Fold this protein.
Amino acid sequence: MRHHIRSFTARHEPSGQFLSHVKSGSGAVLGMSLVGGLSSLTGLPLLIAPLGATAVLLFGQPASPLAQPINIFGGYLLATIVGVSAMLLFPGAWWAAALAVGIAIALMLMLRVTHPPAGALPLVATASPFQGPTLFVVVLIGSVSLVGLAILHHWIPPRVQYPKQLK
């Protein structure tokens, strides 16, 4: 029994350096500020929850396969298509949102563009007042802004290679 409890409470992430953690947090602040500023300028509702989760990966775990540009753009594109389709085909149906999340995950895995925050997009699509084209624009502007900022941000010492280079 004690072994099982320790499995739940054990830290699986390696410990890092304080400066790197501060840099990660400041990158997320800058990223969300950029997206929020663009939201204010454009009038688009760009501050959606999945982009906050993307910031965790981009600035906190930039070496993760889930944080690579192809995963972010591909995952969001697939999930938005599936979410908007579910919204259009079955407006207001909670079960369509659940089905859309599962389909989006399966497609991301099949196409090797898994981005966990994108799994929330079908819920955003079915539960928000966004029209289909607006959601595509919101996700595109938000993800391009965050990835672009992450590329620049990771050049600041302590430097991190982002995106990951092929070996």
User: Anything to note?
Assistant: The radius of gyration is 17 Å.
